[in-house]
Amino acid sequence: MNKTKFKILAIVDAVIIVALFIVMFSLKGQYNEQAQTSVKEQVGAYQEKANGVLQEQWLSMDQYGMAWKLLFTTLTGDKTEATFDATAKAIFENKDARLKQLSYMYTAAGINPEAQNKINEAAGMADKLVIKDEKGVKEVACGKNCVITFTFAKGKLVSQDYKALVEYNMTENFKLEAPAAFHFE
Amino acid sequence: MNIKTIAIALTVLVFGVLILVLTQKGNYVSQATEHYEKTTANSFKGTSKIVEYVGSSIDMNKMLWALSCEAIQTVKSSQDMAKLEGKYFPSTKGSNSISKMTRRFEATSAYFIVSSFDKVEVDPKTQLKTLSGLKSIDVNALLGEVAMAAPVEEEDEGSEEE
Q: Chain A residue with minimal CA distance to B29?
């Protein structure tokens, strides 16, 4: 190649280098923004999922505690339908006692008060205890996938089925999936 | 430096910059992936720990509630109670307080129940004292109505029956 051709090659190279630097810097900003947005979205979605599991467990624990209290109080009381209804209502409406019982269970499990407050603030309290009341058969929620039954005839308790509560497996009902692989979108 | 050298050097530089442009996305992806994996792994670990701890702790709570509910329906004496305790908690024993006519069963330091009886009975042959006539079962620890670090009552003047 002669000198002129090398000159042209050098100029073309210089132009390409400048163009590549421009492309590189513009992509840099774009990738940075993309990476931050993707991480924020995917981390946020996973944390929401994780918090959802904790909140759902909290609400189930609330129902679990209320169900045992209602069962025990019913078995030690006069076993009338009227007393059962009044007890269920009183237990459900006494949010301070529910929170105390919940907090005690979480503290016994080694969960610190800060974590409990955080879950409680987001989850609130369970909004149901007695979920069905038909012809003397009362179904009481005792957690996620847990129902116990009280059967009344002529206003008196004839039977109670709380097998589901005795066999309730809290760990099996609440499982958080491991995070999915990161996708750069 | 002649123009030939400059042209060759610039051509090499073009390829160098091109490689930089093509690999920079990979760098961002790996940084973002690292941050994502670290953050979500912490979330996974923290949440799973809470779920597991609560689940395991509640197994004790559940068995003690089940024991209390069965006891209130079937137990008459401290001997019956001891049998029932053995059914739910084979390796833990309760203790009688003859003076207070109570029997305390502690599943864990947080979860315990206290059964109250209305009579002390003495076996004429063995002089073994037992309690009879179950009046009530105090489940305050299951309801969270006690202080977590409640001192354990160590009075155990009764005889253990199995």
A: A184
Contact A43 B39 (CB under 8 A): yes
Nearest to B32 among A20, A71, A182 (CB): A182
Q: Is the ipTM of this complex over 0.90?
A: no
Residues 6+ apart with CB under 8 A from A102: A58, A61, A62, A65, A116, A120, B144
Please give the Cα distance from B104 to B95 (Å, whole number). Answer: 5
Q: At what angle do helices A113-123 and A95-108 cross, to 10 degrees?
A: 140
How far is the C-alpha of B9 from the C-alpha of B2, rounded, in Å?
A: 11
Nearest CA in chain A to B47: A50
Whether the full predicted model's pTM is greater than 0.95, yes or no, is no
Cα separations (Å) of B162 from B82, B87, B126? 6, 11, 14
Among residues A34, A179, A62, the alpha carbon closest in space to that of A119 is found at A62
pLDDT tens string, chain A, 185 residues long: the values are 588 888 999 999 999 999 999 999 999 899 999 999 999 999 999 999 999 999 999 999 999 999 999 999 999 999 999 999 999 999 999 999 999 999 999 999 999 999 999 999 999 999 999 999 998 999 999 999 999 999 999 999 999 999 999 999 988 899 999 999 998 86
Nearest to A131 by CA among A44, A70, A173: A70
Residue B142: its chain A contacts at CB < 8 A?
Answer: 68, 101
